[in-house]
Amino acid sequence: MMTTAVRAGRQPATMAQALRRALRDAMADDPSVHVLGEDVGTLGGVFRITDGLAKEFGDDRCTDTPLAEAGILGTAVGMAMYGLRPVVEMQFDAFAYPAFEQLISHVSRMRNRTRGAVPMPVTVRVPYGGGIGGVEHHSDSSEAYYMATPGLHVVAPATVADAYGLLRAAIASDDPVVFLEPKRLYWSKDQWDADRPEQVPGIGRAVVRRPGSSATLVTYGPSLPVCMEAAEAAVAEGWDLEVVDLRSLVPFDEETVCASVRRTGRAVVVHESTGFGGPGGEIAARITERCFHYLEAPVLRVAGFDIPYPPPMLERHHLPGVDRVLDAVARLQWESEWTETNPGGR
Amino acid sequence: MMTTAVRAGRQPATMAQALRRALRDAMADDPSVHVLGEDVGTLGGVFRITDGLAKEFGDDRCTDTPLAEAGILGTAVGMAMYGLRPVVEMQFDAFAYPAFEQLISHVSRMRNRTRGAVPMPVTVRVPYGGGIGGVEHHSDSSEAYYMATPGLHVVAPATVADAYGLLRAAIASDDPVVFLEPKRLYWSKDQWDADRPEQVPGIGRAVVRRPGSSATLVTYGPSLPVCMEAAEAAVAEGWDLEVVDLRSLVPFDEETVCASVRRTGRAVVVHESTGFGGPGGEIAARITERCFHYLEAPVLRVAGFDIPYPPPMLERHHLPGVDRVLDAVARLQWESEWTETNPGGR
Amino acid sequence: MTVLEQPGSYRPTPPPAWRPRTDPAPLLPDAEPYRLLGTEAAAGLDPGLLRRLYGHLVRGRRYNGQATALTRQGRLAVYPASTGQEACEVAAALALEEQDWLFPSYRDTLAAVVRGLDPVRALTLLRGDWHSGYDPHEHRIAPLCTPLATQLPHAVGLAHAARLKGDDVVALAMVGDGGTSEGDFHEALNFAAVWQAPVVFLVVNNGFAISVPLAKQTAAPSFAHKAVGYGMPGRLVDGNDAAAVHQVLSEAVRHARAGGGPALVEAVTYRIDAHTNADDATRYRTDAEVETWRAHDPIDLLEGELTRRGLIDDDGIRAEREAAERLAADLRERMHQDPVLDPMELFDHVYAERTAQLRDQAEMLRAELAAAGEPGAEQEGAR
Amino acid sequence: MTVLEQPGSYRPTPPPAWRPRTDPAPLLPDAEPYRLLGTEAAAGLDPGLLRRLYGHLVRGRRYNGQATALTRQGRLAVYPASTGQEACEVAAALALEEQDWLFPSYRDTLAAVVRGLDPVRALTLLRGDWHSGYDPHEHRIAPLCTPLATQLPHAVGLAHAARLKGDDVVALAMVGDGGTSEGDFHEALNFAAVWQAPVVFLVVNNGFAISVPLAKQTAAPSFAHKAVGYGMPGRLVDGNDAAAVHQVLSEAVRHARAGGGPALVEAVTYRIDAHTNADDATRYRTDAEVETWRAHDPIDLLEGELTRRGLIDDDGIRAEREAAERLAADLRERMHQDPVLDPMELFDHVYAERTAQLRDQAEMLRAELAAAGEPGAEQEGAR
Ligand SMILES: Cc1ncc(C[n+]2csc(CCOP(=O)(O)OP(=O)(O)O)c2C)c(N)n1
Ligand SMILES: Cc1ncc(C[n+]2csc(CCOP(=O)(O)OP(=O)(O)O)c2C)c(N)n1
Ligand SMILES: [Mg+2]
Ligand SMILES: [Mg+2]
Fold it and tell me: Which residue among A83, D3, D75, D216 is least crowded, i.e. fewest CB within 10 A of its CB?
């Protein structure tokens, strides 16, 4: 069982291991936590995140369901009504779509509908994003749909420690959480002590991953490593970039983001999801509303193209990479250009 | 039959009448146009938009389907594959959610998947928005979901003439169009000649509904009348507001919007959908990216609250009204405040 | 296409994974809807039960009438009456024990009221006051559900959860003939059967989904015939025969409670009123059809049985009608009081805690209300 | 819960709208899967057909093996083999006429190939080259469908459209045992039955949905028993008996073509390989189980029949195997050629015309490609 592969003390651990450990610990701590989904039992999930849970806690706590996403989420609603804390696995991002009606019309609204009498402590785990060479429907980024649905929390960890801490927080939350797991970070490693997981300050708090002064990169999930790499590469260009990891899209931590942008005066929002109508619009608009007079340049966005996710052989052209981030930073109207492009000034 | 109630010459006509006429004319002109949905036949739809079509064209052209939205849209996909032009009616905005998988995974992607070999000339008519005293699930505004889905066109008429022209254009389009019909404008009237409908310049062109110089209100669908009223009221405050009606969210007419904002230097985006993650984020971010150095103030948004649509008795508090629009305009940092709120200048 | 059973010399082994998983025969419904009233079997029925059913039917009919009247007076945004279908509503509520759960559709306010919910609170949604006017846990009644068939998986999940906890709880979920066409109906029944969850699905087949008649909704011999396809028993019952519906549902509930798994019951009835007050039923059906069903009215059927067996007399009937009038008067009166709504509550239940964004928005609304001198503004400070 | 038929003195009129809509009996499948090979009925089968089926089975098996091998060589992103299920794949393709349509799931490349699609193009999706590698209209094969069961309503819509146009077209749609649990399965069957659309639904029941066995997927006696709940015939067939599957499907196709409406066929088979090359089947099933199914191999069954009846000899068998090797060699060779992809095409098929935004994005990518000296940049000017 891979869970036990994480030994004592700080060791290299993958995000997948941390997620598995979070599920295990949550189930051990609270008998009302139930895992359900397609292939989560015997197989341990196609990404093996639920590996060993059925063995340790039994089929009733970690259940292979029939193959029907609306049914999975819909029954989870009923289980939550009866006081359980269902953790639902959607096998891939795009296969959550059949469950949208249950998600929008019930999971996100049941608390509001019943004036708080029926909360929905449901966690919906969604392996999301691309970069894994997956064929069609296996690489979607659908966070924009979730963000646009009041009543849902939307979380996307980017580090091993956050994967553990945020998943524990999501399961403990009395509100429904869409928990986006960046597929291509599943096997990324960090030094991590499984027995003393770092404290993560709950859902809704962004974090500055790299302090900097020239401009702020605002990002989350699978794009964090890209931004960190870009920030390192930018040093050679003379830019000292700050990187903010949102960690949760809802609640959105305006304070941390705006504090950073007010300091740097420039910002680029980076994500993998399509640009048009994607999460970056909200983020950029919000930063602009709050920080307008601190901005030296418009908040730019680096995102996936406005196209259906491409086939594996072309995905590298679609995914925002270090170069595109640096190109955007270069377009942030640094001193020399400023006067050129805006001759009349303001 | 209400269709014939629209007599020759310019007469007061409702948006509902214009929509019905558009369907009728499209069906008469092109035998491959088929209407399908719940109660669209004998009853003529719960809003009577399809009234008379089954009688005139037969049950096979205007079909009462079983009650299953994914089934309706999914069979429409198959019909389109065989060369028909299905026009699907979703009974209310929220009842389109069961069809999301078909919409996202197939309707929006079939052309791309097949390298253009299988286009999807499907029109999905969605009575949308609130303000009609509807109980839960009858007043949603879900355009953000559609906007975030590449491959779909997203259209929302705000006038009687546009309702006709844009619906004709939607049905004629070889691409799928989500056609958002503002429920509370169904019975709004305009002078309109059913036999000589004004030409509407296809999908993807915004229009300036009211020229002005002080600031631009960017809006669409049910919020257009609100903005027009606000613009009139603003005259008393000494503001001469320009009102841009987007008409389609996808394709987005950047040119018209940005030309206006560059002229006025200030903008407020107004819509009924929730603010956070809603359409306004994209619009505001895009305007800012393109017009930053022309902006005297951040682009502001006036939107529904970030809550599930409220019960009828409270909806007036939720819906963006004239006062909120004017309040936002007032916050656009007019001369006097400018120096106050931004003492250091830039 | 018949199976030819003629073993040859090297007849292949049968596919090893193949075994008929369940015997289909007992899962299939009878060809005709089950009836009790007017049959000799009715003689064995508990008179007390029949009287209770009757009282509820009479009050239920009056309730439907009064609620419809309230829509005309603008006191209700909309009302989907169950007039003519009261036997299903009443029997569904009475078939359950105290600890069980009812999952009603938007048409089933009456079932909720019969189960004990205050009639005024049951109408909260339809009044436009708040989305649901009651705490579902109080009477174990899920919120009246508008998106069709979506309540069915909830019932399955709840019943399954209760079973896992070892609790003695059965869930009964109601859905219309139209609702059976939705994918959620299918998924719910399948989950219930695979999990052997203690759920009873009641299809209230009233012949129409708004304007769409049965023949455009299904080509099946009956909805009850769907059950075999999930591996659960399907039963067909005359939905206007309150005694029969009650008996069939009670048996299904008992069966589920005993660990026998889910069942599907189709009750054949008719919607006497329009879909809602906003609907014009003359567009899609004839008065003559309505009349044939009036001749098979659930109240008349039961009243006939009671009268014939001397279980009720004119006084008894009058007493029930008077009770119904009192209920209606009370409803009328209480519904004429304007509900007091606090607009600031709009921000209170979106999440357990308001987000920063919702706090800002609440502050804006509070300021607007204060400026307009409207209520809501003053309470807000205390939050 | 039996229907008691004891008319009393005032027996209520039956609910007028109630009439058993269809006779359920002929819609129900037999208890055992239908078989032909090894039975005396097989003697009546056309030798030519049996030889054709056999050739396809042998080539199909080799095709599955070769494609799986290509995944190991990094030439295919993933391959869901139909090894062991070839009888279903082959029979589905051969049961259709030229003008008919096939709606395959992601596992059914073989059916598409048997229907005439170039094997390399059939693998385009799985190779990661483009989402679909063929024009569906060319061979009337819908794109291989990944989201489970979503292709079923497409088949219904297409068949319905063709019927409305008066065209002689039947659609055959394939779905797995797991896929039957999805709401789209239910909605598609219901639409097909209500519209009497000429569609044949083939459930390829291979015992598993990835790791999930049948018992966790359904409690039904069989999937074929679902048919009665929609009002269409349900048939159960041994999915490893190519002759039986072909006969049952052909009859269903004929029936649909003649205006008899849709049918549901369940073929009982087994997935010999793992779910895909990426799957580890030892985690959820035993080798012993696989072995029992190997003993019921579709190729062996048909080869036995052919041999026994003297319709093939060792030379004939060798010839088929050689043809299969040639196919494999050709596939191997052509798949080792790198496909030429134009990244600029990413913007070409999102809409009939690029939007302004897509033009900007294309321009950006073109500039990037030009800067990197990558192909794609130069063509763009011409667009
Ligand atoms: C998912 C969904 N689609 C559409 C509707 C709109 N709608 C409300 S009631 C109704 C008809 C329901 O018919 P049926 O299930 O037979 O119930 P009945 O009204 O007869 O009680 C429809 C189409 C809805 N509420 N939910
Ligand atoms: C809607 C949807 N949910 C989940 C998946 C992921 N998935 C791919 S194949 C598969 C199992 C399918 O089993 P079955 O239908 O029996 O077909 P088989 O693989 O056995 O041919 C799953 C869960 C999917 N493709 N689509
Ligand atoms: Mg009904
Ligand atoms: Mg399978």
Answer: A83
pLDDT at B27 exceeding the cut of 50:
yes
| Interval D10-67: pLDDT, tens | 444 556 555 656 789 999 999 889 999 999 999 999 999 999 999 999 999 999 999 9
- Residue for token pair 């499948």: D29
Q: Report whether B278 contacts A148 (CB < 8 A).
A: yes
CB neighbour list of residue B344: distance below 8 Å, 6 or more residues apart = none
**D1-D2-D3-D5 Cα dihedral, nearest 10 degrees:** -130
pLDDT-derived band at D92, boundaries 50, 70, 90: very high
Q: Checking DSSP bridges between strand A267-274 and strand A300-304, what pairing results, if any?
A: parallel
pLDDT digit string (tens) for D103-122? Answer: 999 999 999 999 999 999 99
Nearest CB to D346 within list A133, A276, A314: A314
- Closest residue by Cα to residue B102 from C334, A144, D48, D184: D184
Residue A167 CA: distances (Å) to CA of A52, A87, A180, A196, B201:
17, 10, 10, 15, 50
Nearest CA to ligand 2 atom 17: D176
- pLDDT at B338 exceeding the cut of 50: no
Closest CA–CA distance from residue C350 to any residue of chain A (Å) = 5
Contact A318 D346 (CB under 8 A): yes
Residue of chain D whose Cα is closest to the Cα of B63: D195
Q: What is the mean pLDDT of residues C134-142?
A: 98
Which chains lie within 8 Å of chain D at 3 or more CB pairs, if any? A, B, C
Res C17 pLDDT > 60: no
DSSP letter at B338 equals H
Query: Does pLDDT of A341 surpass 60?
Result: no
Q: Give the C-alpha separation, D377 to D372, whole Å.
A: 9
Q: Which two tokens stand for residue A67?
A: 């193959």
Using an 8 Å CB-CB cutoff, list chain A residues near D358.
305-307
User: What pTM was computed for the model?
Assistant: 0.96
Cα D39 to middle of ligand 2, angstroms: 34
Q: Which of D348, D374, D339 is nearest to D128 (CA)?
A: D339
The mean pLDDT value of chain D amounts to 93
Q: Name, in order, each residue with C-beta under 8 angstroms of A324's C-beta and a sequence gap of 6 or more.
A: A302, D368
Q: Sort out which chain A residues have CB atoms less than 8 A from B286's CB and list them.
A: 281
For C283-321, what is each residue's pLDDT tens digit? 999 999 999 999 999 999 999 999 999 999 999 999 999
Secondary structure percentages of chain A, helix, strand, coil, to 5:
40, 20, 40
Query: How near does any CA of chain D get to the CA of A44, in Å?
Result: 9
Confidence of residue D379 (pLDDT cuts 50, 70, 90): low
The minimum-distance atom of ligand 2 relative to the CA of A97 is 1
Judge contact between A36 and C164, C-beta under 8 A: no
pLDDT tens figures, B279-301: 999 999 999 999 999 999 999 99
Residue C375 pLDDT: 77
What's the confidence (pLDDT) of residue C16?
58
Q: Where in chain C is the domain with CATH 3.40.50.970?
A: 26-335
- Tell me which CATH homologous superfamily contains domain C26-335: Thiamin diphosphate (ThDP)-binding fold, Pyr/PP domains (3.40.50.970)
Q: Which residues of C touch D231 (CB under 8 A)?
A: 218-221
**C 207-226 → D contacts, CB under 8 A:** 207, 214-223, 225-226
User: What is the ipTM metric for this complex?
Assistant: 0.96
D135·B204 Cβ contact <8 A? no
Q: Is residue C190 within 8 Å of C172, Cβ to Cβ?
A: no
Contact (CB, 8 A) for D158 and D171: yes
Nearest beta carbon to residue C132 from set A77, A113, A153: A113
Question: Given a contact as 3+ CB pairs under 8 Å, which chains touch A?
Answer: B, C, D
